Automatic annotation (TrEMBL):
Pfam families: F420_oxidored (PF03807). Gene3D superfamilies: NAD(P)-binding Rossmann-like Domain. This is Pyrroline-5-carboxylate reductase catalytic N-terminal domain-containing protein. Keywords: Oxidoreductase. The lineage of its organism: Bacteria, Bacillati, Actinomycetota, Actinomycetes, Micrococcales.
């Protein structure tokens, strides 16, 4: 499937560039940003995401409706919510083992929030959707088998979830939409289908 709308990707590491490659295969135009300037990213992108256009981090949401967040959670203090504004923010982040987190993140988790609910609190004007966090960069690049692989989508904004469903389809996965953002906790590290392929039926049952 081809999605004509361009997307932004914040983070040009393993996850961000794998998402950019999957988007390119799906015919989706990508603007990608990191801590580096577009000129500094040039050779990196030639190797890892040659179809993507490098932009400055503060410009990542310009001209797009969806921004994929692929920055380590420990670095989120340095991501300004104004960069995202009122766009759909697709939170693809996870806490990696004992990764140190910003204080506001630790406090939100201690209250029992899912990690994307904490992200939503940090980005109050954005329409936050949790998606693609449970698929590794290898899984993103893996050839598609005849069995569809599920990608969970969790949001409190049904229209945003549906929009991200179209994007996920373009990336080569089968969207399974959960009832709300908090349900995304079932796709965090340590859960059954984190980095483990699930069919849409398995994922639907798991997200209930
Ligand atoms: N790796 C995976 O398979 C995978 C899969 C799904 C989800 N995730 C999640 O995605 C997130 C990123 O993981 P990763 O493996 O891609 O990490 P990574 O390879 O270390 O890449 C991190 C990227 O974030 C950029 N970055 C850091 N601070 C930034 C800031 N303030 N503004 C803009 N960009 C910033 C870095 O910029 P520079 O390049 O300039 O240093 C780098 O491009 C993590 O939360 C991880 O759990 C990873």
């Amino acid at each position: 499937m081809s999605l004509s709308k361009p997307i932004g990707i914040l983070g040009a590491g393993r996850a961000g560039t794998a998402l950019a490659r999957a988007a390119a295969r799906g015919g989706v135009e990508v603007r990608i940003a990191s801590t580096r300037t577009p000129a500094q990213m040039r050779y990196h992108l030639l190797q890892y995401a040659p179809s993507a256009t490098a932009v400055r981090a503060q410009d990542v949401a310009q001209g797009v409706e969806n921004v994929l967040l692929a920055v380590p959670q420990e670095d989120l203090d340095d991501v300004e919510p104004e960069w995202i504004g009122d766009r759909i923010l697709v939170d693809a982040t996870n806490r990696w083992e004992e990764e140190p987190l910003p204080e506001w993140f630790e406090m939100g988790l201690a209250e029992g929030l899912s990690s994307s609910e904490v992200v939503a609190r940090r980005f109050p004007t954005a329409r936050v959707v949790k998606a693609l966090n449970h698929i590794s960069h290898w899984g993103m690049d893996a050839p598609r088998s005849s069995e569809p692989r599920a990608a969970a989508i969790a949001s409190n904004d049904a229209a945003a979830a549906a929009e991200v469903g179209q994007l996920v389809t373009a990336l080569g996965f089968e969207p399974v939409i959960a009832s709300n953002l908090s349900a995304g906790i079932r796709t965090e590290p340590g859960t059954a289908y984190f980095n483990v392929a699930a069919t849409p039926e398995q994922m639907s049952r798991h997200l209930l």
